[in-house]
Amino acid sequence: MNIFSFGAEFTDEKSCRLHFKEQRDKQGVICKRCQSTDHYWLINKWSYQCKSCNSRTSLRSGTIMESSKLSFMIWYKTIFLLSATKKGFSSKEIQRQLGLKRYEPVWAMVHKLRKAMGQRDDRYTLEGMIEMDEGYFTIEASDQAQKTQKSGCGSKTKSNVMIMAESTVLEDIDTGKARKAV
Ligand SMILES: [Zn+2]
After folding, report:
1. Ligand 1: distance of its center to the CA of 37 in Å?
2. Ligand 1 centroid to 49 CA: how many Å?
3. How far is the centre of ligand 1, averaged over its atoms, from the C-alpha of 63 (Å)?
4. Which of 19, 93, 137, 149 could join 23 via S-S bond, C-beta 3.0 to 4.6 A?
C-alpha cells in the first residue's frame, strides 16, 4: 500500500472505523463480562452488545486503541507512517506530520504500535498482521502481486504476533532491492 492507495481507501474517520470493525469481526468479539462471543452491532454507538448479558464493548475496547483518545484516522495514518519507510518515523516526526498538539498521546500510541508490530523494521508492514493479545489489527493490501509467501518466523514476538495473510515484499530504501518481510 502506498500513500495514494492509502489516501484513497481511508478518506475519513468513518472509513477507518468501518475497516477496523471488519478486522475485529474476523477475530470475533468476546464479552468481558460473560465471555460470550455473540454480539449485536449498535451502529449508532460504534459498539457491540452482548446477546447474553447486554454488556457493551466499544469498537476500541479490548484493542490496542483502548484508552487512547486519538481518532481511528490518526491511528491508521500512524500505522501507515510507521510502515512507510524502512526506519519508520519517530514519535516526534509523526506528531509533526499529523499536526497534533500534544506529544504524550502520540508517544504512547507509537510505543504500543511498535510493540505490537515487533521491534524489527521488517515487521513494519501494514498487511496481514494481527496480534491476538492486544487486539492488534490489520490493514490489507489490495495489490496481490506485491505479496509473497510468508516464510518461517523465528523472532521473539512469534507468540504474540500471528501473521494471518502473506506478508509483503518491502523495498530496501538504500539499495532499492526488494527484500522479503517476515
Ligand atoms: Zn456478555
Report:
1. 8
2. 8
3. 17
4. 137
**Considering the domain boundaries, does residue 106 fall inside one?**
yes
112 Cα to the center of ligand 1, angstroms: 27
Q: How remote is the CA of residue 10 from the centroid of ligand 1, in Å?
A: 32
- What is the number of domains present in the chain? 1
Dist CA 10 CA 19 (whole Å): 9
pTM above 0.70, yes or no: no
Question: Could you tell me the distance, in angstroms and rounded to a whole number, from the CA of residue 21 to the centre of ligand 1?
Answer: 19
Is residue 97 assigned to a domain? yes
> Is residue 140, in this structure, part of any structural domain at all?
yes
| pLDDT per position as a tens digit, 11-50 | 999 999 998 898 888 888 999 999 999 999 999 999 999 9
For residue 119, being part of any structural domain is answered with yes
**Measuring CA to CA, how many Å separate 10 from each of 41, 48, 65, 87, 156?**
22, 22, 17, 23, 32
- Host domain of residue 168: 3-9+61-180
